[in-house]
Design goal:
The protein has 289 residues and is α+β, with helices and mostly antiparallel strands. Helices cover 53% and strands 8% of the residues. Helix 10 links the parallel strand 3 and strand 4. The longest helix has 23 residues.
C-alpha cells in the first residue's frame, strides 16, 4: 500500500503532490483535445489530424509515466511489480518506451482503430494511473473531461487575437493577496510549476510571484484555465484548493445546447434567460475537498 507523503518527504526533495498533479492534468488535457478533434473533424479537415492525434497520445503517455515514475521513491517494490504485471500500466510503458520515447521496429499498435474508441481506452488508462498513484497525488484532484482544445477551437472558429479582444476574454494576474491590478515591479510571473525548482534554488520570495489566468472563451476553457491556476497556487502556497465540474449542471448546459435552447457555449455570445440554464452556468464549477 502506497503511503501518503509527509512534510519530511518535501524536505528530502521529493516532488510535491500538486507539482505531480500538474502532469496528471496535462495528460487529461490531451484527452480533452482528442475529444475536440473527434467532434469537429469537419471544421479541422485541412489540418494533419493524424499527426495531431499521434502527438497528443504521445504526450499523454509521457505525462502518465512522469506520474508513475514517482512511485519509485514511494513504493519501489510495488512500482516494479506494476510495470511487469499490471496489464494497463505495462501497456502505458510499452507505448512510452517503444512508440513515443523510442521507435521500436517490433512495436504493434494494439489500440482501437477509431478515435472515439481510442479516447475511451485512454480515459480508462488515465483513471487507472490516478487510482494507482492516489498516495502521491492530491486526494481531491479530479479528471473532468471536456471536449476542448484552446488552439484548435480558435482555428475552427476563426478567432484571431483582435477578434478575441472584442469577445472580452480578459486576463488577470493572481498574487498572494488576490488579483493584482497595479504594476508591481518586484513581481515575477509564475508561468509553469517547473519554475518552482528555480524558486526554491534561488530562494525567491514566493510572496512576489503572480500567476496569469484568463477567463476563457467558454466554460470548458474556463475550467481548464481555472484548474491550471489552482495547481500553481497550491504549489506556491502549500494549499489544496480544487474546483471540479458539477456533472448535473454541465448536463443541463449540454442538453440545452442539444435541443436548441442555447446555440453557443461562447460566453460573449450567450443570451440566456431561462433560470435553470442561468443557474447551471453560474454553478457549473464546484469545490472538491
Amino acid at each position: 500500500m502506497i503511503q501518503r507523503r509527509t512534510s519530511k518527504d518535501a524536505q528530502l526533495g521529493v516532488i510535491s503532490e500538486w507539482e505531480l498533479a500538474r502532469y496528471l492534468i496535462d495528460a487529461k488535457r490531451c484527452i480533452d483535445s482528442l475529444m475536440y478533434i473527434d467532434a469537429n473533424r469537419l471544421h479541422l479537415r485541412f489540418l494533419n489530424l493524424h499527426g495531431l492525434v499521434r502527438t497528443l497520445e504521445g504526450s499523454l503517455y509521457l505525462n502518465s509515466v512522469y506520474v508513475l515514475d514517482h512511485l519509485k521513491k514511494a513504493a519501489p517494490e510495488e512500482y516494479g511489480y506494476l510495470r511487469d504485471n499490471d496489464r494497463i500500466i505495462k501497456r502505458i510503458f510499452i507505448e512510452r518506451n517503444k512508440n513515443v520515447g523510442h521507435k521500436n521496429y517490433e512495436y504493434e499498435d494494439r489500440n482501437p482503430k477509431y478515435l472515439g474508441d481510442r479516447i475511451q481506452v485512454l480515459k480508462e488508462r488515465l483513471v487507472h494511473v490516478r487510482e494507482i498513484c492516489r498516495g502521491i497525488l492530491p486526494p481531491n484532484v479530479t479528471l473532468d473531461y471536456v471536449p476542448h482544445d484552446p488552439v484548435l477551437y480558435r482555428v475552427a472558429n476563426g478567432i484571431t487575437a483582435e477578434v478575441e479582444e472584442g469577445l472580452g476574454n480578459k486576463g488577470m494576474l493572481i498574487g498572494s493577496h488576490g488579483i493584482q491590478t497595479g504594476g508591481n515591479l518586484d513581481a515575477y510571473i509564475f508561468q509553469d510549476t517547473e519554475q518552482y525548482k528555480t524558486i526554491k534554488r534561488d530562494r525567491l520570495d514566493k510572496e512576489k510571484a503572480v500567476i496569469p489566468k484568463a477567463d476563457g472563451l467558454n466554460y470548458y476553457e474556463s475550467l481548464q484555465n481555472f484548474q491550471d491556476s489552482l495547481i500553481k497556487v497550491n504549489v506556491l502556497t502549500g494549499g489544496s484548493v480544487w474546483m471540479g465540474l458539477d456533472a448535473q449542471k454541465a448536463e443541463i448546459i449540454e442538453e440545452s445546447l442539444r435541443v436548441g435552447k442555447i446555440t453557443t457555449l461562447m460566453w460573449a455570445k450567450l443570451n440566456v434567460t431561462d433560470a435553470e440554464i442561468v443557474d447551471a452556468f453560474q454553478n457549473v464549477f464546484k469545490e472538491v475537498v
